[in-house]
Structure formats: C-alpha cells, structure tokens
Amino acid sequence: MFRNLNEGQLRAKTKELRTKILKMLCEAGSGHSGGSLSSIDILTVLYNKVMNHDPKNPKYPGRDRFVLSKGHVCPALYVVLADCGYFDESHLMTLRKYGSILQGHPYMHKTPGLDVSSGSLGQGLSVAVGMALGARMDKGNQRVYCLMGDGEQQEGQIWEAAMAAGHYKLDNLCGIVDQNRLQIDGFVKDVMNIEPLADKWTAFNWNVIRCDGHDMSSIENAFAQAAAFKGKPSVIIADTVKGKGVSFMENKCNWHGVAPNKEQLETAMCELECD
Length: 275
Hints:
The protein has one domain: Rossmann fold, CATH 3.40.50. Helices cover 42% and strands 12% of the residues. The chain is built from nine helices and seven strands; from the N terminus they run ααβααβαβββααβαβα. Strand 4 and strand 5 form a beta hairpin. It is globular, with a radius of gyration of 17 Å.
C-alpha cells in the first residue's frame, strides 16, 4: 500500500498518530508510552511509503512482512494499522481490555494485519529470518522488515539470527533498530553497553545504514538504500528519542511502561497541537 504523501503530510500524519497513541494509552490505564512515541515515525513511513501491503486483502501471498520484535510498543503499530484501514479506529480505545482485538502485545490471531505474535524480546529477528529465507525458497519478491529495540540488542538470540541472515545473504531482509538509548532500567550504555553497535552488525555481514528516526526523508532514504543493496541483509540504525513529541516524556526511562493520566494527557495534547 503506497500513499502519495509528501514530507509535510507525513509529519502531520505522525502528529495525528501520536495523539491517538496517548489517548488509547490513557484510556487503557497502562502500556508503553516512550517507545511507542520513538518508533511511530519509522512505522508511518514504512506502511505509507515503503511496504507492499493491502488492507483489503491482508493475507495475499505476495505481501511484504513486518515483525514487531519490540512488541511492547504495539500501540504505535495499532494506530498505523487502523489508519491504513485494517480495522475500525473505534477499536483503539479498547486497548488491553478484556475481549479486545488489541492486546498489550501483538497477537496475530486477533488483530488484523499482523503476521506474527511477539513480545518476548530478542525473538522477532529469528522469525523474520525464517520469513525471508522462506520467501527466497519460494522464489518470491517479498521483503521482510523487523523493528527491534536497542536494549533488545543485549539478547543473545538477536546475534544468532543475525549470524544466520548474514550467512544466507538474505538481502530481502531489513532490520531496524529504534536506538532511543533507554530501556526500562535506565540508559542502555549503563545497563549493558551495546556499542560499537554498527561495527557489530558489520562484523555479522550486514549492510549498516544510519538515519534520523524522526526525519521523514532520512527514514525513507534509508529504506530505499536497504532495498537497493544486494548480497547482504541490511540493518537501519535509527537515532530516536524516547517519548518524542512530549517534553515531559522525552529521554525519561520512567515513561518506558507508563500510560499518561487524564491531566498528563491534556498537557501532552496541548504540546502536540501547538507544535
């Protein structure tokens, strides 16, 4: 699904989607604000300008696949899927409620538009590698995208999957690291330093691309570079800000797994509308 949105329209779209993320989290009373806000720009570009997908035929075999390995930021994915037309936006306000199609982590058997259930950190890239390898074996043209967190890079399974993808030269696979530099317990560098991250991915035989994860052109160009590169999988390391767009959430690890209350929501809405 491609929408002919220019950079200004994409920025307006992400502002709109940020407000929806915060409203659904406030209504739920729980969830992950910081990472949802750091990744929404990436997901907006991916679903509107990059991926081949069709909300009217969500299971057609030739579609590109997306794996949200950092499954806790599913509010960002849910608002994008609703905006694309996979389900009615009224479902957004049922997040995390009993019987809802929108659970606290992605559940493919309930939520239209999902290709995999996820949430246990470190596992998504392995699934994406299998999807990419399967597409090659079927001689398909599908591309596979996998969004990971930077704290998630501390998981050993990430590097087992990275080694396999490099070995099989899966150039139909694109990983994205949402590098907001924070995780639930604090700064990534203090919990378990992952740097030099780009050098690690390079050593595992991946093509490494860096971008500004909040600049629409930079994100789109990074995806274009990944699609054009042959002979290796690509990983985009996107420099982002946890809680992006809301001043009292930005770069605060305590907003990792906390939803805004009504007063905080009102303050955030004023900031986003005045920006």
